[in-house]
Design brief:
globular, about 40% helix, BirA Bifunctional Protein, domain 2, 6 strands, six-stranded antiparallel beta sheet, 7 helices
Length: about 190
């Protein structure tokens, strides 16, 4: 696109903005329902440093809108832990499970659980560098424990990532995300 000209066709296309607004609200509703479904458990019982649940939205994650549901919300580099559902427009829907360095060390013997559930390790100097989510390589199954250990020491955190297919029906998407969360909570022996 020519940077010296304003795209009036796009600017005046009210329907596209209505469609975007509607879809954003649909994801907000999905995340709100998931959050409400989780409200009956005491998440601090499973992760005492939890700061609760939060839904947030924005428009500028590498130039694209996003919606997020964070569960546990502790991003401390040592003992932090978070489960994030990220709907990133133009990139996809992801579930990310973050462990700070010391928590990753404490739980390293159980971390292979995520590998067996279809998750991949993210790579990058920061757990918030999402630019390579879609290109994250899969750990070799020959010795995942050794790979996980090296990863923890190299990056000083551990973050698992799984791309989720977006169902067109809201109810199907809700159930799919609920199943994924249940798999993650199984890691904590949480039953929802």
């Amino acid at each position: 696109m020519d940077q010296s000209k304003i795209n009036n066709e796009l600017l005046n296309n009210r329907q596209i903005f209505n469609d975007i607004h509607k879809t954003k609200n649909q994801f907000k509703e999905v995340f709100t329902t998931l959050s409400n479904d989780l409200s009956h458990i005491n998440i601090k019982q499973y992760y005492p440093l939890s700061k609760g649940l939060k839904i947030s939205m924005g428009n500028e994650l590498e130039k694209c809108p996003y919606q997020v549901l964070d569960i546990f919300r502790n991003f401390d580099k040592k003992m932090g832990h978070n489960i994030r559902i990220l709907n990133w427009w133009g990139h996809g829907l992801y579930i990310l499970v973050f462990f700070g360095y010391e928590l990753a060390i404490e739980t390293r013997s159980n971390q292979k659980y995520f590998l067996h559930k279809g998750f991949k390790l993210t790579q990058g100097s920061s757990p918030w560098d999402y630019s390579n989510l879609a290109n994250t390589p899969i750990i070799s199954p020959e010795d995942p424990g050794d790979t996980i250990e090296k990863h923890i020491h190299q990056y000083r955190y551990l973050q698992w990532c799984k791309k989720i297919e977006i169902a067109t029906e809201i109810d199907s998407l809700q159930k799919s995300l609920g199943r994924e969360l249940n798999r993650i909570f199984d890691f904590h022996n949480i039953k929802i």
